[in-house]
Design brief:
alpha/beta
Length: 421
């Protein structure tokens, strides 16, 4: 595409670019952009921002500020004041609907010609280069609203193979027994509906998102596998009450890994480096254990998902924000995310590389993915499930008091399924 036509496309997309052949570098416009990402990604984000500035140096000067915002809390922070939020930000797939509804994400279909003109790619190409699920989860009514960056938004079990055997980590019963014998702890977050849902999903229970934003959930009943919510809760209470179990507060997993008290922990690829440091030569990972209901061993489920980088719908430099988000999720950028952060790529080429296929954490994630599911829930889901999980962690329910457990489950479901005000 000729420069004149390309400029016209960029202007139509709300983006002003300068012709470097007409002005000197000192005369180029300075474009200010902010990027929000996880604390552990700050150095890498800075490197990518510098690479972007160099790539587009002929068009503008750039002032790109990198800020810390956990992906898990991105939605809540952004929706507090969308206009004051970053131009470009990272977030997980379960936040997409709320962000789109609030106008916090640009419809990328409107920037396709600009991407072709300036990034040398197209939305169709980007979609084909990433795994289908990551594209589908970022699309609403056929429009893509964020660039896929990772297909690793799930969890599994890290363990110290110098202390625990493969047989030990196969079930929660043997895992906790071996950990207790070794004087170590097994950690997991329970006060989060992202993590504690794994026990219910494994037993055949479900959650779902309705068109009106409300959530469906059946945990207080009987699953299609024939288990009751009471039985699942009793199993969780037994695990939480074990002397070798550590209930970790949501957001504190990395700190607990670093403490040296753990011999195993439920987490995801974002804690791969921390576990590798803590477990040393014993560093290992595998799928989640089974847990006991009656005479049965039930495979613990999990949440599988994706991570994205999006451009703020209120960005004053929307075109540049889109180009920066595209740059930060490109094949080469995803390769850097894997190399530096062991983050599992959504890019098909990177995901099929030997380095990814031979990675300990990625292999465990792939093993657990057979038991994972994409979690789609409304905003009302999170507080009741967090409270429920905290009650499990604190042992406020007696394992033999089925009536109290049923009441707690009914209260949970009532809160989760409440209408949107």
């Amino acid at each position: 595409m000729k420069l004149k036509k390309a400029l016209a496309v960029a202007l139509a997309a709300g983006m002003t670019m300068s012709c470097a052949m007409c002005v000197s570098a000192d005369e180029l416009e300075t474009i200010s952009l902010t990027v929000w990402g996880a604390e552990e990604d700050q150095d890498l984000l800075g490197e990518l921002a510098s690479g972007f500035a160099e790539t587009y140096a002929e068009y503008a000067n750039f002032d790109i500020q990198i800020g810390v915002e956990s992906e898990s809390t991105a939605k809540d922070t952004i929706l507090t004041d969308v206009e004051a939020a970053a131009d470009v930000f990272a977030f997980p797939d379960d936040q997409l609907n709320a962000l789109v509804s609030a106008g916090a994400l640009l419809n990328l279909e409107e920037y396709d010609e600009m991407l072709q003109a300036y990034a040398g790619t197209s939305l169709e190409t980007i979609k084909s280069e990433n795994v289908e699920g990551s594209v589908d989860a970022a699309s609403i009514d056929g429009s893509l609203y964020a660039f896929p960056r990772a297909a690793d938004n799930g969890y599994f079990l890290y363990y110290n193979a110098s202390v625990l055997s493969e047989e030990d980590v196969a079930s929660w019963d043997s895992l906790l027994a071996a950990a207790a014998e070794a004087g170590g702890k097994v950690g997991m977050v329970l006060n989060s509906g992202w993590y504690n849902a794994s026990f219910f999903y494994g037993a055949g229970f479900t959650t779902g998102l309705n068109d009106d934003g409300t959530t469906t959930i059946d945990w207080n009943g009987t699953s299609e596998d024939g288990y009751t919510g009471v039985q699942v809760t009793q199993a969780m209470l037994e695990i939480a009450a074990n002397e070798a179990f550590m209930a970790i507060a949501d957001g504190d997993t990395s700190n607990q890994i670093a403490s040296g008290d753990l011999v195993a922990v439920v987490s995801g690829t974002w804690d791969a480096e921390a576990c590798q440091t803590a477990f040393g030569d014993g560093y290992a990972a595998t799928k989640l254990p089974t847990y006991t209901i009656g005479e049965d061993q039930v495979q613990q489920g999990s949440v599988s998902g994706y991570k994205y980088v999006g451009a703020n719908g209120y960005s004053e430099n929307s075109g540049w924000a889109v180009l920066l988000a595209a740059y930060m999720t490109s094949e080469s950028s995803q390769e850097e995310y894997f190399t530096q952060r062991q983050s599992g790529p959504s890019n098909i080429a990177v995901a099929s590389s030997d380095a990814v296929l031979e990675n300990v954490a990625q292999a465990a994630l792939a093993e657990q993915s057979a038991y994972g599911q994409v979690q789609r829930v409304g905003d009302k889901y999170w507080d009741p499930t967090a409270t429920f999980g905290e009650n499990i962690a604190q042992g406020t329910l007696a394992v033999d008091d089925e009536a109290a457990i049923q009441e707690a489950l009914d209260t949970l479901v009532e809160g989760v399924t409440a209408a949107i005000e």
